[in-house]
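Severity: low
Component: inverse-folding endpoint
Summary: output formatting inconsistent between runs
Steps to reproduce: submit the following C-alpha cells with default settings.
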C-alpha cells in the first residue's frame, strides 16, 4: 500500500471522544497534583523521600506534555479554543510556550526527513559527506552534540529551561509568539515565587527541578528514538515525500504497557505522522485494525538502546550509521 493511501484510510480515526479526552486529562493531572502534594508533605520526613516521589511524578508530567502535544494538533478536543487553553495551562507546567511550540512542531511535521529543510524541531543530523567535509572543530562540535551524555543530559535542560524562554526560530514571525513565550515565562515566575514563599528552596530543589528535568530528559529520548534509528529515511527535496517520510522515517516504539500508557502512545509515531489529528488514545485502534502498521519500523525497548550510537546518514546505503561504521566507508 502506498503511504499516501494511509492518510485517507486513517481519516476515520480523527474524531475525538469528549468523555475519553476529559478522562485521560483527569487521570493524568489529578495523580500529578496528588504526587506533588505527597512529595511536599514528605519533605518533613526526608528530602530524599520527596525526591523519590518527584522522580515518579516526572512520568505524569511527561504524559501531560503529550496531552499538550495533542492539543497543539487540535486532536483531543473538537473545540479548538478549549484545546488551546488546556495546552497553554499545561505549557506552564512543562516550561513550554504553547503557541511557539505548536508552530515549530508543525514545521517539524511538514519537513521531517527532508535534508534540505533541517534545523527546526529536529535533532541535528549530518550526512556522511557533510561530516567529512567539515574541519576538525566542526567534527568535534558535531560529536559533542551527538554524544548521549550531552544530548540526553544537557540538551533537555537547555531546551526547556533556557531555549523555551524566547520564541527561538520565530523571533520575527509576529507578536503572538512573543506573547506566548513571555506569558508562559510570567506564569512560571509566579508559580516559582509561590512555591518558594510557601515551601522554601527545598520544594524547588527536591521536587520542582527533578520532576521537570527528568520529564524533559525522558521526552528528549522519546523524540530521538522516534526519528533517529537505523532504517529511518532522509531525502533531498526533489525526492522527498511527506507521507513516505511519515511512514518510514518515524518509528513504532513498541513499549511495555505501563510505559506506553505513561507516554500516551507517542511511540506509535509513524501513525501519528501519517495522521496527526488522531487523538493519542485512538492510535492503538489503528494498530489493532491494521496489523501491517504494527510491524512497520518497529523498535522494541531493547532495540532502541542501540539508536544512541547512530550519528550519520549515509545516502548510498540509506541507513543511519555510527561514526565507526561511517569511517569504514570508501571516500
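Observed output (run 2 of 3):
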Amino acid at each position: 500500500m502506498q503511504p499516501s493511501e494511509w492518510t485517507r484510510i486513517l481519516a476515520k480515526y480523527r474524531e475525538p471522544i469528549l468523555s475519553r479526552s476529559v478522562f485521560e486529562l483527569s487521570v493524568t493531572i489529578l495523580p500529578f497534583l496528588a504526587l506533588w502534594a505527597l512529595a511536599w508533605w514528605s519533605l518533613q520526613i526526608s528530602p530524599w523521600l520527596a525526591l523519590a516521589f518527584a522522580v515518579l511524578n516526572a512520568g505524569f508530567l511527561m504524559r501531560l506534555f503529550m496531552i499538550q502535544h495533542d492539543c497543539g494538533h487540535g486532536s483531543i478536543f473538537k473545540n479548538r479554543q478549549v484545546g488551546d487553553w488546556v495546552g497553554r495551562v499545561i505549557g506552564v507546567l512543562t516550561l513550554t510556550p504553547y503557541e511557539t511550540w505548536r508552530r515549530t512542531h508543525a514545521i517539524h511535521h511538514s519537513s521531517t526527513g527532508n535534508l534540505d529543510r533541517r534545523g527546526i524541531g529536529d535533532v541535528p543530523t549530518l550526512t556522511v559527506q557533510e561530516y567529512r567535509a567539515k574541519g576538525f572543530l566542526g567534527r568535534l562540535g558535531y560529536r559533542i552534540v551527538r554524544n548521549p551524555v550531552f544530548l540526553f543530559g544537557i540538551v533537555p535542560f537547555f531546551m526547556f529551561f533556557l531555549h523555551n524562554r524566547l520564541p527561538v526560530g520565530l523571533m520575527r514571525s509576529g507578536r503572538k509568539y512573543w506573547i506566548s513565550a513571555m506569558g508562559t515565562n510570567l506564569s512560571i515566575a509566579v508559580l516559582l515565587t509561590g512555591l518558594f514563599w510557601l515551601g522554601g528552596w527545598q520544594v524547588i530543589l527536591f521536587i520542582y527541578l527533578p520532576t521537570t528535568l527528568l520529564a524533559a530528559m525522558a521526552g528528549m529520548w522519546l523524540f530521538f528514538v522516534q526519528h533517529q534509528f537505523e532504517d529511518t529515511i532522509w531525502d533531498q527535496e526533489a525526492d522527498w515525500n511527506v507521507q513516505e517520510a511519515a511512514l518510514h522515517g518515524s518509528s513504532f516504539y513498541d513499549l511495555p504497557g505501563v510505559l506506553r500508557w505513561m507516554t500516551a502512545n507517542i511511540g506509535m509515531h509513524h501513525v501519528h505522522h501519517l495522521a496527526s489529528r488522531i487523538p493519542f488514545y485512538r492510535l492503538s485502534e489503528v494498530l489493532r485494525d491494521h496489523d501491517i502498521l504494527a510491524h512497520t519500523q518497529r523498535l522494541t525497548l531493547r532495540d532502541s538502546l542501540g539508536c544512541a550510537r547512530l550519528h550519520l546518514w549515509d545516502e548510498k546505503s540509506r541507513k543511519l550509521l555510527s561514526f565507526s561504521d561511517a569511517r569504514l566507508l570508501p571516500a
